[in-house]
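Example 9 (inverse folding). The structure is encoded as follows.
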């Protein structure tokens, strides 16, 4: 069975912003890559040898300078009071994604046109009932925040922390995976 991103039971990707981000934060734009170059999960879920998060390819998202400034500002607002007077925060951009949950897809029942029966012997036409289930895949996005000490060019990174600020939900069949193999290079 082939899967088509435009079929009716496809989960439409959406983003969930951390509440610390300001109203009107520009949502990242998600692009689709050519599907042929990658593996995808279908019904039955993940079948690769390695854990899915190891082979999942980072979503093709455009990140902007405007978002960078807003994410850093949100972090500063939450944690800036703990800074010493000679310390500043720097942000590493673009952020790093992590596949937290690969999700799953359960197809609807295949039933006949005439009686809505699964094992009908009289009808020739069958269709997939829209009673399947899709649990979306979940990506979390984090930016590394470094605390610098000293001023100007003499500053040095003292410590760093990951700031998780966005979750992206997408159809499990839309996650691109490197081709499955038992070898890792
Ligand atoms: Zn029938």
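The amino acid assigned to each position is listed next.
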């Amino acid at each position: 069975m082939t899967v088509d991103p435009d079929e009716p039971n496809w989960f439409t990707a959406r983003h969930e912003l951390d509440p610390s981000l300001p109203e009107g934060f520009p949502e990242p734009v998600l692009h689709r890559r050519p599907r042929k170059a990658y593996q995808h999960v279908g019904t039955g879920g993940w079948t690769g040898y390695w854990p899915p998060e190891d082979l999942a390819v980072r979503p093709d998202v455009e990140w902007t300078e405007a978002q960078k400034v807003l994410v850093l500002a949100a972090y500063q607002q939450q944690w800036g009071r703990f800074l010493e007077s000679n310390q500043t925060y720097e942000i590493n951009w673009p952020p790093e994604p992590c596949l937290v949950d690969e999700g799953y897809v359960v197809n609807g029942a295949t039933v006949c046109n005439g009686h809505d029966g699964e094992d009908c012997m009289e009808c020739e036409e069958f269709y997939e009932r829209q009673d399947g289930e899709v649990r979306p895949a979940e990506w979390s996005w984090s930016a590394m925040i470094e605390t610098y000490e000293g001023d100007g060019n003499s500053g040095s990174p003292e410590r760093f922390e990951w700031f998780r600020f966005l979750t992206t939900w997408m159809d499990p069949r839309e996650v691109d995976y490197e081709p499955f193999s038992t070898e890792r290079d």
